[in-house]
Amino acid sequence: MPATKKAALRVRHADGAQxxxxxxxxxxxxxxxxxxxxxxxxxxGVGEDGRIAASELVARLRESGVSDTDPRVTxxxxxxxxxxDIDGRSRIDLDRFIGLCKLGGGVVAKSIRGDFVxxxxxxxxxxISGIYESLxxxxxxxxxxxxxxxxxxxxxxxxxxxxxxxxxxxxxxxxTLFCAQSVCKPVNYGLTLEEHGADVVHRHVGRExxxxxxxxxxxxxxxxxxxxxINSGAIMSCSLIRPQQDTADRFDYVAETWRRLSxxxxxxxxxxxxxSERRAADRNFALGYFMREHGSFPGxxxxxxxxxxYFQRCSIEVDARSLSxxxxxxACTALLAPA
Length: 339
Fold this sequence. Notes:
single chain, mainly alpha
């Protein structure tokens, strides 16, 4: 995989020539004045008319992983589509270039400088595409522990990634919706920590590996689920998420959290899977009653309502593009957290 250290910026001009420059080598201090943007502008092939080909800017954005669905640069892509011909026949002068950079809030400039966390994103895209091609003919079986999941098309396969800098790439069936199922567990846990803090949360759920199956009927020596990433722990997490509200409001809160984490990506709900999961929920009901027998839940917990809420959480739908952004969001937060 490509190294994440800064690499020289390689710009391919319209005439096919290439020019390498160290990111920031000629920029000096970032003053965001005309001189700063002029230096960015000269990274491209400036013609005798003092303009650059629109295609060079578009290519640079895409090669660096700035997707045309990236909410940070929605206005930039809209301006490019509205004001220039993306096929490269139109050209951009310095004033228009500065305007596009400012619309991007620093993302466009960072792309041109090669300052993203993975500077050589094009190489990474090539490698991921190769992995996809090598795996897409590999057979397998879909999950069938819930009847509705057993009906999913086993030929669907896609890969999507999103870096902590928001660089994105997707290949295959990355826009096909699927149910989050156990992928909801880290989000459940994060919401409980945000609402109550670790001390309160871990009075009701442990934080160590269980060494057992994800849905095994077992608790730790304190009579608690071993951790939030197994079914019993995820059910416990659901009991802690805004328990004073009714189920509809709790679900709206969770769904909106998914939308926020995905950067406005596609988030839905599969009612058929929810009903199927609810009908095949004997083990989860057993886990719930087992925990209630051991006094694991917070006082006043409505067990049936908690389980219904858990089934709804598992039935949230996302696509791979959105899920990659959901995964990158807490990773980005961790990078920004103080040591």
